[in-house]
Amino acid sequence: MGSGSRQEPADSVVWFHSYLHGGTSSLISTLTTLVTFPLYKTVFRQQLHSTLVREAVSQLRREGPLKLYRGVAPPLLMRSLNGTLLFGLQDTLLQQLSLRDTSAVPRMALPAVAGLGAGVLEAVLFTPFERVQNVLQNSRNDASLPTLRSILHRLASKPPASGYYTAFLPVLVRNALGSSLYFGLKDPMCETLRACGCSPVASSFITGVLNSMVISLPLYPLSVLVANMQAQVDGGGGVRSSWKRLWAARQRRLVLLYRGGSLVIFRSCITWGITTAIYDQLKKRSRSSG
Questions:
Q1: CA nearest 117: which of 83, 101, 94?
Q2: In this structure, what DSSP letter does residue 67 have?
Q3: 196, 245, 260, 285: least buried by Cβ within 10 Å?
Q4: What pLDDT band is residue 38 in, cutting at 50, 70 and 90?
Q5: Domain 2-289 adopts which CATH fold?
Q6: Tens of pLDDT along 142-161?
Q7: Which residue from 98, 88, 67 is spatially nearest to 19, judged by alpha carbons?
Q8: Residue 4, pLDDT score
Q9: Alpha carbon 73 to chain centroid distance?
């Protein structure tokens, strides 16, 4: 009992540092979210309307600079909170799994399993943020829902499945798989790069970049589906019917479904490269000072 009571505060400090470092790294990387938001909004229009880049840019120009950053608040808030909880929850779950008898799961797979659990909780907590963001970014909602308050009131008046938690299932699958892949690949990839002579900062940054590419490419269609389901306040239907409509609208061509994907991957590479590098450096300094 005595040794257990001494270990518990130490574990609590480690977990607190994971939440703190995750939040700090994500807060700093939100600067890239702010700078690249016009790029993200261009991609969103491509996801929603399957337009070319020049057509999406023309739409944004016609709407004017005042509406360019409409919808930026939810991703900024979500990004800051997301890093805090994602890294903190994954580390908390990893510590709990490491303390238990998990002989059925290889030890090297525990980070991926913990990432899966963190991704599930992330989807539960942040789907409402993404829902509000997508409604805000859809210019067709500007007339009927001109303010954030009006959107929140409309969504709150609807059942969760058609309100704040529209498209929850694809969000859950995307976030759970993405987090599992990120944390499962992160350390092995980083160690391999360091063995090849990369500096710690460079290896962390490249790991974040490569991870984002590996995750974004196969999961991008889910993001397109989520954007189309969540952009409309009313209607939309279930996942299967929404997917059928989306696939038909893209003329059953994969290349049209991936329209705008290169911009998403570029933005994701920048954000996750910076986030991973900052998080790893903060974690390293915390361990050395402890």
A1: 94
A2: G
A3: 196
A4: confident
A5: Mitochondrial carrier fold (1.50.40)
A6: 888 888 899 999 999 999 99
A7: 88
A8: 43
A9: 15
